[in-house]
Every structure is written in structure tokens, then in C-alpha cells.
Amino acid sequence: xxxxxxxxxxxxxxxxxxxxxxxxxxxxxxxxxxxxxxxxxxxxxxxxxxxxxxxxxxxxxxxxxxxxxxxxxxxxxxxxxxxxxxxxxxxxxxxxxxxxxxxxxxxxx
Length: 109
Fold this sequence. Notes:
By secondary structure, the chain is α+β, with helices and mostly antiparallel strands. The protein has helices at residues 3-14, 18-26, 31-36, 43-53, 59-62, and strands at residues 71-73, 76-80, 89-93, 102-104. The strands form 2 sheets. It has a two-stranded antiparallel ribbon. A two-stranded antiparallel ribbon has the order 2-3. Helix 2 (18-26) crosses helix 4 (43-53).
């Protein structure tokens, strides 16, 4: 999905015209019109336009990201045992992600 498609979807969801959204975001009525004509806006203008349209800035990027793995790298572990005394617990971390072990991806709410 390209930037124009993302903006069109935002306009549709908000029930706004290109002119209304442009004025509200940048104070200039031709912001979206110029974008559609091939004139790239500044990041600041896109950020304001996305805010007006209720679009997350990463929305257009997420479509192209690879899907998440069901495994994540193991960065450390906690071992406990014995009589539950502090000396019976050990914590280990793998600096610089040096471990090649993986564990199941935690559930997302």
C-alpha cells in the first residue's frame, strides 16, 4: 500500500475531503493534491496529516514487514531450586545476543 492509498483510506474513515484534511493538518488546502501530483511533502507534513486522519505513522510500513516468527532469541534465563533461598537462584544473560537458542514467542494481548 503506497502513501496515497493510506491517505485515501484515512480520508474515507474520517469522512473528510482532501481539502479539509490538508487545511486542518498544514493550513494549506493543496497538501494532498500536491502529493498526488508527485510533489513529495516534508515528513513534518505527513506526520501532521496522519495525526488528523488518525493513522499510525508506521501503518504504511507494516504492510511490507515480514511476518513475525513464532520463536524469539533467548537472551537469558533464571534458574531456581533448592530451598528457595536467594543463593539457590541464578540469573544469566547472553550479552550481544550471543545465544543461538530460541523460545516460543510470548502471547500478545
